[in-house]
Amino acid sequence: MKLIIDRQIWNRMPDLELVVLHVRGIDNRTPKPAVEAFVRDAEAHTRQSLSGRPIGEHAPVAAWRPIMPDSSFRPAHEALIRRTLAGKPLPSISPLVDFYNGVSLRHCAPVGAWDTTELAGGDLRLVVTDGGEPFTALGSSQQVLVERGEIAYTDAEVAVTRHFVWRQAERAKVTADTHSAFIVSEVLPGGGDNLAERVCDELVRGIAIHFGADVRAAILRQGCDVWDSEGVSSEYWLAQFNTARIRRPLEDPSMAGFVAALAPINALADRSPGFVWRLHDATGNSTNIRPYSDQRELITLSIWDSIESFTRFAYDSAHAAVMQRRHEWFEPMSSPYLVLWWVKNGMIPSVAEGVARLERLRAIGPGPDAFTLAKPFPAPSTTRSTPSAVTASMQATSSMEART
Question: Model confidence at 383, in pLDDT bands (50, 70, 90)?
Answer without folding.
Answer: very low
